[in-house]
């Protein structure tokens, strides 16, 4: 059973920064894709940024230029650096890992990010 554990969320003022981490219970090389999603109250879950199976990155237009996704393969950890945070970034941020061969998607429990105005 794969475990993804997010950390790094919290309360921050608008304009501030946070770095989220997602620690995987096994080598992240084994996943075809990994990324970050978020879900605000009353809204659908949406993509924030992810590494694709081809090794490229994609991100939502709303976070381009402010958020950056990265990974440390040696630590089996995925990161999301969030700068210039806005109140509309407030949400639960969830880590996702996908296996194409098994068609399985794994999710962490999420970490709350709250941006005050």
Would you give an account of this structure?
There is one protein chain. By secondary structure, this protein is mainly beta. Helix content is 0%, strand content 53%. It is built from no helices and eleven strands. The strands form two sheets. Strands 2, 4, 5, 6, 9, 10 and 11 form a seven-stranded mixed β-sheet that branches. It has a four-stranded antiparallel β-sheet with strand order 1-3-8-7, with no helix packed on it. It is globular, with a radius of gyration of 14 Å.
Keywords, please?
four-stranded antiparallel beta sheet, 117 residues, 53% strand, single chain, mainly beta, seven-stranded mixed beta sheet, globular
The portion of residues forming beta strands comes to over 45%
**Strand/helix succession:** EEEEEEEEEEE
Question: What is the tally of helical segments?
Answer: 0
| C-alpha end-to-end distance | 40 Å
Q: Report on the biggest sheet.
A: 7 strands, mixed
Query: How large, in whole angstroms, is the Cα Rg?
Result: 14 Å
Number of strands: 11
Fraction of residues in helices?
Answer: under 10%
- Please, what is the average pLDDT? 96
Overall 3D shape: globular
User: Based on helices, strands and strand pairing, what is the structural class?
Assistant: mainly beta
Regions with pLDDT < 50 over 5+ consecutive residues? Answer: none
């Amino acid at each position: 059973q794969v475990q993804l554990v997010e950390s790094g969320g919290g309360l921050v003022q608008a304009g501030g920064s946070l770095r989220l981490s997602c620690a995987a219970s096994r080598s992240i090389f084994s996943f075809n894709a990994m990324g970050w999603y978020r879900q605000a109250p009353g809204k659908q879950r949406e993509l924030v940024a992810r590494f694709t199976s081809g090794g490229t990155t994609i991100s939502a237009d709303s976070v381009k230029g402010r958020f950056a996704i990265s990974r440390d393969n040696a630590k089996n950890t995925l990161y999301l650096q969030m700068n210039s945070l806005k109140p509309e970034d407030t949400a639960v941020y969830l880590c996702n890992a996908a296996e194409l061969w098994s068609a399985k998607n794994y999710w962490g429990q999420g970490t709350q990010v709250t941006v005050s105005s």
